[in-house]
Amino acid sequence: MSGSVDRTYWRKKGIAIEPVAEAASVGTAFEWLGENRWSDSPFIDPHLRKYTEKELGEREWQETVQLAEECQPVLAGRSLLWPEVEALLHKRGKKVHQTVLARVLQFLYLQEQMSLKPGVEIAGPAAEWICHRCCTKGAGLRVTACAMCGDKCAVCERCLLLGKSRTCIPFFQFIHPGRRVPENGAVSVSLSFSLTPTQQAVADHIVRFLTSDHRRLLVWAVTGAGKTEMMVPAISSVLSQGGKVLWTTPRKDVVHELGPRLQKIFRGIQVRSLYGGSPDLWLDGPLVISTAHQTWRLYQDFDLVVVDEADAFPLYGNPSLEAGIERSMKQGAKQIFLTATPPREWKKLLRAGILSAVTVPVRYHGYPLPVPKLLREWRLWKKLSEGRPIPHLSSFLRQAETKGGQVFLFVPRVQDVKKVLGWLKEQEPDFFSRAAGVFGQDRLREETIRAFRQERIQVLVTTTILERGVTVPRGHVLVIGADHPVFDRASLIQIAGRVGRSGEYQQGVAWFLAGEKTEAQIQAKKETEWLNQLARTTLWKKEDRF
Amino acid sequence: MVEPVGPNNLMEKRRSFLDNLSVFWYPNIQTCVPVFVFLAEQMWNNPRKRRISQRRSVLHIVDWWSVLFPPDHRCWLCDSAPVPAGFWVSVREKVCAACREQLTPIVSAGCRVCGRSADGNSTGICPDCARVNPSERICNRSAVVYSDGAKQIIQLFKYRGKESLSSPLGVWMAEVAASHFGKQISLVTFVPLHPERLSERGFNQAELLANVIGKRLRLPVCSLLTRSRATLPQSTRTRQDRLVAMQNVFQLSEQVNPKRIENKRILIVDDVYTTGATLRECAKSLRQAGASHVCSVTFAR
């Protein structure tokens, strides 16, 4: 990157070096290295232009060294592309010119404080090309003409939204120089309420896990069990030892919600929430909440990683995001998965004893989970689009109204939101006036959800985007078209889990309305019943409340 | 995340499907021939695989399962929901319902010059075009209205650099160009970027679109123009500033033989038409060089 720093550094060590070739980009250089051009005889590139980079003067060298020492703690523990390094330094108030930055990075490289790779490495067959930033292999990498390096090079389309990763853009992984000094001896934790005995038992179990030799723990806690609160003792114990904690989740909404909540609990500590376009981006702190995609920018920096909603899209079954989370952990760091609906593979591992786990089958208030009721409606979608009466739907709305609750109507596809709203207008005009629809790309999404939380809206027609995270105390749930493949077992359990979140209001119901019973519906019902049974037998539930 | 995650569900399904199949179909040479023809066709039709195969050996790359049982085609713009596939299906059909709702295709042009969408019963020429000198007017057609949804897509394509979007957008524009200009066109060109901007962005979005359009309409694509000075992005200016700033920015490229464009009908490609100042300037220099007829196509208007 900077020949002059290279020369100066090695001269100080008493070694003279000569350039053999000059590559247009880091990608080309790595391709040459892969070909082993210089293995036997020193081959000097005939096209090498007159090499202009001279040794640095003593003053310039001192400046470079000093700047590198300033930048190193800022950069440590991150994996960044060149433009991201610039953005990070800019955010921290260091304006560094390109050539100076090249010198600094070259110096850090020579000091072995970082590793250097091209953003996308194209060596060998195309199936083995890899984007180092997001760890994607093969498909998703496209070769295009690039005006930046003036040649054809590969670009990764998977991690495009975090900034382009190309063959001609260098990618750095800054190594952390060692253990942080314990700066925060005691962490002040202020929980507004005390943990229930169940939660306390689980929390103790998690704290014990931190000192055991297991690496991973699965916390299988039903919806509304108070997962966040149960994690607090473990997090504070890691923080008080001077460690760093990463709380990561595939959903941006969860980061939004969790940031202020955790900040309220950990008063004396800076909680950073990272997501696309967050103000905390590029800042550092002992407790970081991030979306799964943002973990691609971290490197071996955390002692404890909590993966919230570990089975949710897009994290589960996505090897590149999993690799990103793995990369953000220090060696020997612990990983905790939180989920209400572990996938079948995890359950198998659990049964086989490969994965250690703790199960929490009871909610924080001790009431049982609502068991979904399966209903059938003949020609449901036809009736909906034609505006013909659907007795189940009407009676559901009526009963919710008499019990004074709010209603979620879940539909499988975006276009169905409109259909259901149209049906309401036709058949239940008094509900239509208090209804609203919401879906993923909706511009008014946040606003509608806020209105629903403030009870200005009574009926919310939604796609599966609200299956996790959004809770109202007096919710009733109806899944319209529960036989659609988007509603799998996990999704249906999560949806039914929207009901009965508050200890004061337990009249909420969860109904699945479908043309036919599917395996997913039956399994969801079965699992809920099983968890209730488990809660009853383990006597974690309060006797009088069952 | 957890080490042995077990086989992918989808994979499992496919495998069991093949097991069932092998009861009826035992691969011998006669039955293999159509399969190989099918495979070759599949590889040739899949642009990604074709591009890779030009560069490296084919055998390493192709995931044979997905060639035998190709996955559903996904929405061209957002890659989410499955959509109908096939060469003959219009792009509008290959876009999922959510994207379609955000984009408003221009079905009938309200202004016969700039091709803005018809609002109400106005026909003829819109007031903006009426202000322009008739000799400078350029006949433009666009695929969609420049709404927020279109803005997002352009943003993703141009500034985020999702270059693969050039194929759906380009094919869509090719459909529009073919339906409006038909066989009038003999040459396709694009609005150039200043070299500085080009090296900063890494690609010229109009060039990518023009390449797709040229391939689809089977017309030659030439880089005819150069930009003599770097201008600030048009999106940062007001209407009046834009009109002034663009004067004499484009010249005919020195490498182009002027005879090549004499009496030719040329189609200029750009991503967005707002005031039309850019396209009119391009048309001006092309007309000066002797082009008989100049028209333009953009994605959004």
UniProtKB/TrEMBL annotation, chain A:
This is Competence protein ComFA. InterPro entries: DEAD/DEAH_box_helicase_dom (IPR011545), Helicase_ATP-bd (IPR014001), Helicase_C-like (IPR001650), P-loop_NTPase (IPR027417). Keywords: ATP-binding, DNA-binding, Nucleotide-binding. The lineage of its organism: Bacteria, Bacillati, Bacillota, Bacilli, Bacillales. The keyword Transmembrane helix does not apply. It holds the Pfam family DEAD. GO terms for molecular function: 3'-5' DNA helicase activity; ATP binding; DNA binding. Residues 208-360 form the Helicase ATP-binding domain. One of its GO terms (biological process) is double-strand break repair. Residues 392-546 form the Helicase C-terminal domain. SMART domains: DEXDc, HELICc. The keyword Transcription regulation does not apply. It comes from Lihuaxuella thermophila.
From TrEMBL, chain B:
Gene3D superfamilies: 3.40.50.2020. Residues 247-300 form the Phosphoribosyltransferase domain. It comes from the Bacteria. It holds the Pfam family DZR_2. Residues 66-130 form the Double zinc ribbon domain. Belongs to the ComF/GntX family. This is ComF family protein. It comes from Lihuaxuella thermophila.
